[in-house]
Amino acid sequence: MFHGVQGWMRRWRIRTRLFWLGGLGGLAVLLGLGLALWLGQGLTVLSQRVFVSKDVVADILPPPLYLVEMRLVVSQVAEGSLPLAQGRTEVARLRQEYEARATFWREHPPHGLETSLLGAQHRAGLAFMDGVAQLLALPEEQALTQLRAGLPELQRQYAEHRAGVDETVRQATAMALADMAAFEQMVAQSRQGSLLAGGLLLAAVLGLAGLLAATVLEPLRRAVRAVQQVAGGDLAAPVDVAGADELTDLGRALQAMQQELATMVQHVQRDAQQVAVASEQIATGNRELKIRTESQAGAVQETAAIMEELHCTLNASADNARQVCSLTQQASAMASRGGEVVGQVVGTMQGIQDASRRVGDILGVIDGIAFQTNILALNAAVEAARAGEAGKGFAVVASEVRMLAGRSAEAAREIKRLMHDSSERVERGGALVEAAGAAMGDIVRAIQQVNERVVQISDASLQQNAGVAQMGVSIDNLNAATQQNAVMVEQAASATMSLHGQADGLVQSVARFRLQGQGEHAD
């Protein structure tokens, strides 16, 4: 029957079961609260009656509802120990206090004591106070006489009042004792009823909780066994699933997890084998890469040495180019100065040529003068011959002059011929000097072009030197990178070997799982 109830409860969701358990607990709490409220209300009524009875006794036995103090004032006034005026004041005060308390009890009537508290004894008290008030209201001589005469009647009224007070005290005391006994009896009954109801409700709640725990713990145990089997590597053990509650959902989830985990393990086994093979291939490739990297590192180092030599060669070429540039600049300066000298020579030759032309002109004049002198000498000789003896001396002179004029003309012609030759030579020299000047200009321009080319060569050498230096830095960086690559290849080889070992470990780890269609899993 218990298992049948468990199966019936398994068709409920755990939330529903907890709801019913909580509802039962809430019902128990409500019943307990209702019982406590009912008992508390009864206890409150009884306690109020007890307190009211005690309040009545406390209020009536001493003043102001008990007129013993007013009776004492009347006696003191009658015997003359208290002045009449003071007696009137005290009586008025005591009556005011009495009426205030009587008004309170009329507004808050005591349960079961209304008649005795506000009945005969109250009327007797009012009659006593009215009689006292009437007597004290008389003139002083008459008031004292009438007061002493009326004392017996006042004593009778006071005695009735006192008898009513005693009866009220007796009734209040009896009621308080009865209510206290009922209060104690109700407390005992409420304690017993609370214990009985609490025990019954506790038994019901514990029974339902035990049944709920049984419907929860057994599926949890099955789920724990399934998880332990999965943790042990058995992915083929079936997971029992029955019911429609959350634990059934948990079982289905565990079943789905087992199936997915089995599929994942199959994939992991296959992938682990592939990883192991791939890691072996990577290790082989890393070894080959290490060899090639070391070879490349050696080649880079050789290239670095060659680039260093080329750098030195380019430095030497740049220095030579700078020296050649300096020499060509000096040669250009010298050629420029030579061109200037040739120009000066050309100017000088032109001056000589001009002077030769002027000398030729002067010689032409001298030749003309010699010709005229010769003619004049000839004429003089003719005239001297005509003169006879007188003209012999003059004829000799004329002959000498003619001879001198002839020699002068001859000398002038010779000088003119020499000057003509000199002029031709000066012209040829001028032409040669002009040609030399042009050649010097060509030489200067050629030297300048050579200088420009040398400067370009020097600049190109500097650029090549800078490029080679940068290339050297790049090769150094390449060498460092190659060295780092070699280290990284070594590390990669170590990591690959570690990966290979881990892949083997992974293969061995997943081999311990037992799947559907397999025998006992391997260790």
Automatic annotation (TrEMBL):
Q: Which UniProt keywords apply?
A: Membrane, Methylation, Transducer, Transmembrane, Transmembrane helix
Q: Which residues form a coiled coil?
A: none
* This protein's record includes keyword Membrane: yes
**Compartment(s) of residence:** Membrane
Q: Which residues form the HAMP domain?
A: 214-266
Name the source's superkingdom. Answer: Bacteria
PROSITE patterns, per the entry: CHEMOTAXIS_TRANSDUC_2 (PS50111), HAMP (PS50885)
Protease as a keyword of this entry, yes or no, is no
Q: Name one GO biological process term.
A: signal transduction
Record's GO cellular component terms: plasma membrane
Membrane-spanning intervals of the chain: 195-217
The record's SUPFAM superfamilies line, in alphabetical order, gives: Methyl-accepting chemotaxis protein (MCP) signaling domain (SSF58104)
Q: Please list the residue ranges annotated as the Methyl-accepting transducer domain.
A: 271-500
Extract one GO molecular function annotation from the record.
Answer: transmembrane signaling receptor activity
Q: Which family does it belong to?
A: Belongs to the methyl-accepting chemotaxis (MCP) protein family.
For this entry, the protein name equals HAMP domain-containing protein
Q: Which organism is it from?
A: Ideonella livida
